[in-house]
Amino acid sequence: VIVIQKYFRRWHAAYLVQNLKEQRRLRLAQEAQEELQKKWEKEEKLRREYEKKLNPKTREDFELLYHDLQLWMQEETERINRTLTGAKRKAALYALLEEETELIACIGMHKLSANLENQKKAILHFLEFYKLFLKCAQPRRWKAFDGKITEMDTQNSLRGKELLEIYRSINLKDIPKDERISVLLTLKWTVKEHECKLTQEIVALIDREIDLMSREVKECNLEGLRKRICTLFLQYIKTPEFNPQVAGLIKVPQDPLTLYKNVYFCHSCEKYLPPSEFPIPASSHTIGRCRSCYQLDNEARKREAYFKYRLILENLRKSEVDYQDDSKIVFLVQLPDMQYLIENIWNCQSALSACSDLYELVMIRWDKQHEWSPWNTILLTKEEADAHLKLHNLQKTYEAPFIYKIEQKHIRAKNYFARIPAMASFLHRSNNQSNAN
Known about the structure:
The protein has 437 residues and is mainly alpha-helical. The chain has 15 helices and six strands.
């Protein structure tokens, strides 16, 4: 029996050691795989950022370009002020200004090419609407009890078919002058059935083209005029009052007067725009400038890049939605508020490791039992955030000095956001919960 026990213990010990070695090997392989994955993700982010700067296409891409230009200008200005004096300093600053002007012009050229691509996308969108327009000319169809398809042209579908034929005709190119005039006259008498400002403008443009054609004006000089006629006629087609069949295919408000209640005036560009075109921070009391004006002012003055803050805010909102506890504060916070929170409260670094790479940082709840708020948050790396959310007792896990430091940051955030009317009720509720606890 003793011999059997001896050999069994030996086998069992060897089995345990082998099992531990295998676990260690798997853990090291997993850690190595995670390190490779992190390295690949970081390289991929850098590659995408470099690609965005090399071939900018979106608003965020140009934000990054102008931000890098501003950083470069600050570094060069500091270097010149530190190393040069007198006339040499003025000459160097002048040369730097010339170089900045050239770079801005280069960015402007990239922006023009990006606008051309956006115009192509707009043309594709127009083609999508053209497909929608084809549906207006289709007859009504239904299947009978015997499986046969029955088609019936209604008054509205016939109207849509008529407008479709006219639209196709006015878009034809290289047709004889007589046929073109005939098409224009058909269009003229069609739109004159409804008297309004739009139809009057179409009729005026048609008369102008006929007059220019009678004067033997070249075809190439009439392209702009013909495009205007097509655009206005397309607008005519999209109006349910003139084309009833389109009412069921596009979203048209029942009462157009209700649109006026949701239109605001931008005092900078002097345009009336919908509310979605106005970035309104949580601390704002009035409607300010539109997004385009903010972007133009940012490119000319501060040249700040909100891309990284936008990523953090989007990830935060996604994580809050996953909690499914009806959190609201995170959706009141806008990009300028998030920027202030990260830069001034958390100093753009992780509270634990002091990592300052914003691509690696996420903002999560400090106490996961309560909804996220500027006074219930912490800025950590992704790995630290995963570990933090697994904790059950923060007081036992973290040391008292660290908890005190986090609480001080929460107090600073409370003092800042307490001035915002939209946050006041949430702050009051948070204070009541703290007193109850």
